[in-house]
Amino acid sequence: NKLVHPTSAKLPPAVTPPPQPFQPSKSLNDRVGLIRGDITTLAVDAIVNAANRSLLGGGGVDGAIHRAAGPELLRECRTLGGCETGSAKISGAYRLPCRKVIHAVGPVYDVLRPETSEALLRGCYTSSLRLAAESGCRSVAFSAISTGVYGYPSREAAPVAMRAVREFLEEDKEGKIELVVFVTFEKKDVDAYNDFLPMFFPPE
Ligand code: AR6
Question: Which residues form the Macro domain (predicted)?
Fold first, then answer.
């Protein structure tokens, strides 16, 4: 080191500090983002699709992802054996700029049993993050699962999504997930996410 101060030459050698437990350098607030746009354009490690139990494609974001990924995605999805509601499976991303697609199956919103819908929606986020971490995906972008065709009210879905992500990141002591991006598309979701994000991830 050319910049050593002359007096430090007389000091005894520095003691090597003991290994420290992992501490994520970023605060929780720095590990989440919110954008409005087309999830198929994002070059993150994994994007999360709002799929159905067949995993064989459909409309909405599912259709957009299959169109952009190309027919190889459907070919792989045929081998996955479907997926339970409230859970997720992972595939390659083919022509998409991301590395993996996580296919989460949200609930059709049941107005008579909102707690059941909530548990299933929460399961989508938790399973997706667990799969991402296991697969070495450190940045994950979520579509607003169930808030389209499946009828989940945006203002109810947003806090469920954010609480699940927050709790996962708090538990993620090794910092496997570095960034979670919430991707909104329609104005109702933009408004709901803008309102709730600072409550769940307050600026430090
Ligand atoms: N990028 C990001 N978000 C999008 C995009 C996009 N390109 N397109 C739509 N969204 P939906 P669901 C938003 O209906 O409610 C399919 O047919 C959209 O505004 O795609 O979970 C599946 O195959 C909404 O906020 O999914 C299932 O059968 C969110 O994505 C069923 O729909 C989810 O809306 C699943 O219904």
Answer: 19-201
